[in-house]
Amino acid sequence: MQWKGVMPAITTGFKQDLTLDTEHIANHVNWLVDNGCAGIVANGTLGEATSLSFDEKIQVLQTCISAIGDRVPVISGIGAMTTKQAVALAEKAASIGCSGLMVLPPYQYSTDWYEMKAHVAAVIAATELPCMLYNDPSAYGTDFLPEQIVELAEEHCNLCVVKEATTDVRRITAIRALLGERLSIAVGMDDVLVEGVAAGATSWVAGTANALPRESVLLFNYAIQGNYDKAFNLYKWMMPLMRLNAVPKFVQMTKLMQETVGRGNPFVRPPRLELEGAELQTAIDIIKIALSQRPEILKTEQ
């Protein structure tokens, strides 16, 4: 596993009856890889994992692995209500050929470090796969502090990367100050991508890339190369779209972006509902205005 480049946290495609659309999922991940993405992260928050059964999560992973083969690694989000369920999912993901795991806090239970450490440690230790710790306190109510991450890194050699979604770029600096190159950092919120890379992140678990993979890869490459003039020009254009991925209805917004570019549909599972009325129209306007103002650089560079 090379924790580098753009690794989209994929949406989960559904048919109109809200069953899994495995044909769409297979086509989608191949399109992302064709456009330069370096990995696929499935069964994450953007993938509506909380609404998927255990068997459906495995089906999503098998679909991704079958579709892209060994072109890029497939990383499975590992989230569950209980530690036992999370460990079982990790073990199954390893057995079917996933290349890595993204370890989430338990669903619905935000607790102290003593209990949280026990949960994520059990998942990390369940397999030999390289693991990414998912730190998104706004989504899960748990904030993995840099000192706590150090504890996990010292005790688990297969903890390799932290997905930092706090939006506080200082966290990246703090983790690197404590651990040096021991852990890689992945940017976990789209609208801090350039700042995160400047602080030392080497990968991006991206949402907007579901609809704009080529543009996302180009932006990431500019940032990692330190080409900040070109990066800022592209970043400024993408920012309104990125911020649609940073609101409570980010799943609906991302799927709407996919639909607008001809790469998906708006179907989501309740309690999520499709956008409608003024909220839908506002989002459509933002997307269409942005797409109509694509920077010249996108027409000349691949």
Automatic annotation (TrEMBL):
It comes from the Bacteria. GO terms for molecular function: 4-hydroxy-tetrahydrodipicolinate synthase activity. Pyruvate binds at residue 205. The active site is at 134 (proton donor/acceptor), 163 (schiff-base intermediate with substrate). It holds the Pfam family DHDPS. Keywords: Lyase. The keyword Lipid biosynthesis does not apply. SMART domains: DHDPS. Its EC number is 4.3.3.7. SUPFAM superfamilies: Aldolase. The keyword Lyase applies. Belongs to the DapA family. PANTHER family: DIHYDRODIPICOLINATE SYNTHASE. This is 4-hydroxy-tetrahydrodipicolinate synthase. It comes from Planktothrix pseudagardhii.
